[in-house]
UniProtKB/TrEMBL annotation:
Entry's cofactor comment: Binds 1 Mg(2+) ion per subunit.
Name by which UniProt lists this protein: dATP pyrophosphohydrolase
GO BP, sorted A to Z: folic acid biosynthetic process
Binding site for substrate: 6, 27, 38, 139
MF terms in GO: dATP diphosphatase activity; dihydroneopterin triphosphate pyrophosphohydrolase activity; metal ion binding
UniProt xrefs under Pfam families: NUDIX
CC cofactor: Mg(2+)
Entry EC no(s): 3.6.1.-
UniProt keyword list: Hydrolase, Magnesium, Metal-binding
Residues binding Mg(2+), per UniProt: 55, 59, 121
Amino acid sequence: MPKPPKIPQSVLVIIHTPALDVLLLERADHAAFWQSVTGSKDRLDEPLADTAVREVGEETGIMIGGALVPRSALFDWQYSIDYEIYPEFRYRYEAGVLYNTEHWFSLQVPERIDVSLAPREHTAYMWLPYEEAASRCFSSSNADAILQLPRRLATRTIDPQSGPLAGERGQ
């Protein structure tokens, strides 16, 4: 049975420490293509935060919602971009789909931690200071998101009743 077409709604999750060291993953299908965690919704009605939690778990083994990384460590930036899907990846989507909407999140972990990679997706990982991490990203939008990390975190507020709230709204 063939895989269903990918949904052109995805997340980008920048995993970082309090010192702003950022985790980058090297793609298995593109050597030297370093990126943050990314992934598409599995279902149209899947909440974006659930997509982020699932993708982080699948790609790194980091389980959001436990003692080490509580759910409140995930920050929805309430920001998205539309980008053109690379031609070599368009076969994964329905015919005629050219653009994907990517929603940005960050996840703070307590320190540089070891991760468990999904070997079909990634072959290596590294932790770098955020500016250096941005310079290593293949995707300019991923680099831009990483460079925005200090400003985005500075705008974050916490609601004691319900957890993190976004500090600003994007697209």
